[in-house]
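Predict structure. Input: Response regulator transcription factor, 232 residues.
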Amino acid sequence: MAKILIADDNEQITSILSNYAQKAGFETIIALDGEDTLAKFHKYAAEIQIILLDVMMPKKDGFEVCREIRRTSMVPIIMITARGEDFEKIMGLDIGADDYIVKPFSSGEVMARVRAILRRLKIEQQAKNSFVIDNLSVDLDEYTVLVNDEKINLTKKEVELLWTLAKNKNKVFTRENLLDSIWGYDYYGDSRTVDSHIKRLRAKLEAVSHENWDIKTIWGVGYRFEEMADEE
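Output follows.
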C-alpha cells in the first residue's frame, strides 16, 4: 500500500489527516517534530509517495526538513503553514515544495491536492522524460537542465516550468494554465506565483548563452517558449 508521511506537531491535525488519507487508500506514517520526520522519511523513503509537512515544528522546522529531503529525493511535498504570508509560500516553493496550504484548511481539499499531484506525476512518468532543443537539455527524471553542457541550478518548480514551456514550444500558456499544469490543481494559487517563478528562471538562464531560444512574455496573456531558428 502507498504510504503518506504526515508531519505536524498538532496530534489532532495528524489524526484528522490520517483518517482522510486512510479512506483514500493510503497507509499513514505520523511524525510530530522535524527530527522524527527525517528519521521516518529515511526509513521508509522507498515507499513514501507524498509528504504533508508542517512549517512550524519543534527541533527542526518544515523548511529545514524540506531542504534536507531535497538533497536526496524529489518525493512530492505539500507544506502546511499557519500563516499566509507570501514570503513563506515563496520560500517553501523555492526550496522544493510542490504545493502549500494554509491553516485552517479543509481535509477534503488537502486530499484533493494530494490526488492532483500524484495524477500529474503519473502522467509525467508515462511520457518521455527528456528532450534537447538547440543547446538546451532537460531531463525530468533527474531534474537536471544543461545549457552548452553546463548545469543550471534550478528549483523543482523552475525545471517543471521550463519543461512545460519548452516541450510545447510556441504555444502560449496563460498563468492559469501554468498553475493548473505545474502546481497540479485548478487555480487555488495566485497567478503572481507564476510571474515570480518565471522571473527567477529567466535570471538564471540569462547567465548562459541561448541566442536561439527564449521565454517570451505575451502581454495580457501569459508566456511561451520561442525557438528563434523556427522563424528564419
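The CA atoms of residues 76 and 121 lie 9 Å apart.
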